[in-house]
UniProtKB/TrEMBL annotation, chain A:
Keyword Lipid biosynthesis appears in the UniProt entry: no
This protein's pathway: Protein modification; protein ubiquitination
Segments forming domain SKP1 component dimerisation: 108-152
Keywords noted in UniProt: Ubl conjugation pathway
InterPro entries from the UniProt entry: SKP1, SKP1-like, SKP1-like_dim_sf, SKP1/BTB/POZ_sf, Skp1_comp_dimer, Skp1_comp_POZ
A GO CC term attached to the entry: cytoplasm
Subunit structure: Part of a SCF (SKP1-cullin-F-box) protein ligase complex.
Gene source species: Erythranthe guttata
Name of this chain's protein: SKP1-like protein
Any one GO MF annotation of this record: cullin family protein binding
Biological process, per Gene Ontology: jasmonic acid mediated signaling pathway; protein ubiquitination; SCF-dependent proteasomal ubiquitin-dependent protein catabolic process
TrEMBL record, chain B:
Species in which this protein is naturally found: Erythranthe guttata (Yellow monkey flower)
Gene3D superfamilies in alphabetical order: 1.20.1280.50
InterPro entries given in the database record: F-box-assoc_interact_dom, F-box-like_dom_sf, F-box_dom
UniProt superkingdom: Eukaryota
Residues in F-box domain copies: 4-44
Stated name of the protein: F-box domain-containing protein
Length: 163, 394
């Protein structure tokens, strides 16, 4: 582990599409995965993150820097997270939740999962299938039955053609 | 997009409001299996950041009750629930001379009590209602004749693992220093209500003649009354009237005592951090001066609805749908925007409620019910003290 000196230590992270990113160690260790690597002394050179692409990693690093700059004030951190996630589309959120899980960043995990749940709130079954890339494996009879059973939950939900 | 690992899906699903779990079940068979599994319901109950309370609306307006969900972002989601009479296309509680009450909650069920008065006879029917699956099962019935039906009464219902079923207890309070009485009915097992021996003064908040407060309860599996749990030291003696405005609740799985006897000043919520350990009472104080000016009323007009995961106390005001969330640390209160489908001029009462996303084991609950005789009237010469129980309005 880096010695406590005046100059902040910088780590180099590598995405699975070979992009390199510099990030302050103090921000990067928000990821328990990275922190363990640093503590085990495997962070000397470049840290390869095989499950995260460059675009997602750039976002995650923006978040790491942003959130670690905020002093211990849970309310301010929460409003930073809300703002950070407000303009993200579903695909980006999905990539981020997978990355947060791989990097073991619980605060980002919680915030992104909550955001996805919030986005799903008024969405149709068809929308959810498309966005999650899910094949409908119900038979037409089964689907009609399960929809009938939960009919009341469809009130106020957006409609779409293949709903 | 690659498919989501199941544990990540669970993280998202526990953050969905109640209704959206239904929509998600329609997506595909594996989602449906995941969401219908009992372990998901347990996970949702233990980890969902969304707090659900049952909100009973004023009986005068005949509006159906609602479930309210408090999302962490401050949204309030209301879902009307319309329990139907089993096997009929009519809603419970809309008939003349009948009133629907909440007798408790547990295992994702609402225990509803329909009281119907006709001439000299009062009938009380107990229904189990699963608001997610819309199942409604009648599990017990009581026919009461004068003077019994005029006494104060209360129900207590809970699941008893030993018999894999539910026990229902009805306490009566005839007042005038007559002894308490209670009768019990094990769902699917008993044919008739049984009189419980020696119930003593078996209310939950108990005040003896010297004004000494203790909390008593009933061990449903042994059917024995436990000795009192000591109330917080500061609260050891209260007057009869103060007792009327002191009630028990469960907040965040902790037995809590709400004291509203400081009418002009404050509402005090005591929570027992370790059940049964009387040294573990801790206190939360809501000063009425923190509340918005137009909501400032006497303390006894408020109901403590719930405590949110962030520690904020949610209060509702009698005879209105005003809801306020109080941050104790900041001494600040924020009003909730109540959804339009909750009608005006109704009172919101609440009790914490964790929904279930799978159906009742109806066979067990229904077993014997349809075969049993008409319950006999419970005639008794002795009876009880009114109790304000867990899961009840206070």
């Amino acid at each position: 582990m880096a010695a406590e000196t005046g100059t902040p230590t910088t780590l180099t992270l590598k995405s699975n599409d070979d992009e390199l990113f510099s990030v302050a160690e103090s921000a990067a260790i928000l990821s328990v995965t990275i922190r363990n690597m640093v503590e085990d002394g495997c962070a000397g050179g470049v840290i390869p993150l095989d499950n995260v692409d460059g675009k997602t990693l750039a976002s995650v690093i923006t978040y790491m820097n942003g959130i670690s700059a905020i002093p211990a004030d849970e309310e301010k951190k929460k409003s930073y997270r809300d703002k950070f996630l407000s303009d993200k589309d579903f695909e980006t959120l999905a990539d981020m939740v997978l990355a947060a899980n791989y990097l073991n960043m619980s605060c980002l995990m919680d915030a992104v999962s909550a955001k996805i749940a919030q986005v799903m709130e008024k969405k149709s079954v068809g929308w959810v299938r498309r966005k999650f890339g899910i094949e409908n494996d119900y038979t037409p009879e089964e689907e009609a039955a399960v929809k009938e059973e939960h009919k009341w939950t469809f009130e106020g939900v957006e409609t779409d053609d293949d709903n | 997009m690659d498919s989501f690992p199941t544990d990540l899906l669970q993280e998202i699903f526990i953050r969905l409001p109640f209704k959206n779990v239904g929509i998600s079940k329609c997506v595909c068979t594996s989602w449906c299996d995941l969401l219908s599994d009992q372990s998901f319901t347990a996970n949702y109950a233990a980890n969902s950041p969304i707090t659900t309370v049952f909100a009973e609306q004023s009986v005068i307006t005949f509006n159906p009750p609602s479930l309210l969900q408090f999302a962490p972002n401050g949204d309030l989601i209301a879902t009307r629930i319309n329990p139907k009479i089993p096997g009929k296309n009519r809603y419970i509680g809309r008939e003349k001379n009948s009133t629907l009450y909440l007798a408790g909650t547990g295992n994702g069920l609402l225990f509803l009590m329909l009281r119907k008065a006709l001439l000299n006879l009062v009938t009380e029917k107990i229904y189990f209602f699963n608001p997610f699956c819309k199942e409604c099962v009648q599990v017990a019935e009581n026919s009461l004749v004068r003077p019994e039906w005029s006494y104060g009464y209360k129900y207590m219902i809970d699941y008893v693992p030993g018999i894999k079923s539910y026990k229902i207890v009805r306490f009566t309070d005839p007042g005038n220093e007559k002894p308490s009485q209670a009768k019990i009915f094990a769902v699917g097992i008993d044919q008739e209500w049984r009189i419980l021996d020696d119930p003593g003064f078996c209310h939950w908040v108990s005040v003896d003649n010297d004004g000494v407060v203790s909390i008593r309860t009933l061990d449903l599996s042994e059917e024995k009354f436990t000795p009192g749990i000591r109330s917080p030291r500061e609260l050891t003696r209260i007057s009869y009237y103060e007792n009327r405005v002191t009630g028990l609740r469960v907040f965040n799985d902790r037995l809590s005592l709400v004291d509203r006897s400081d009418f002009d000043e404050r509402i005090t919520i005591w929570t027992m951090d370790e059940y049964g350990i009387s040294d573990s009472w801790s206190k939360i104080v809501v000063q009425l001066s923190w509340l918005p000016f137009d909501m400032r009323k006497s303390a006894d007009l408020y109901h403590a609805l719930t405590i949110l995961p962030n520690g904020n106390v949610v209060l509702s005001l009698k005879d209105s749908v005003e809801l306020v969330s109080v941050c104790i640390e900041k001494k600040q209160a924020t009003k909730f925007r109540v959804p339009d489908n909750v009608t005006n001029r109704s009172t919101l009462y609440g009790t914490a409620f964790a929904p279930r996303f799978y159906p009742l084991d109806e066979d067990r609950v229904r077993r014997q019910w349809h075969n049993r005789k008409t319950p006999s009237a419970w005639l008794s010469t002795v009876s009880i003290a009114l109790s304000v129980g867990v899961g009840f309005v206070c």
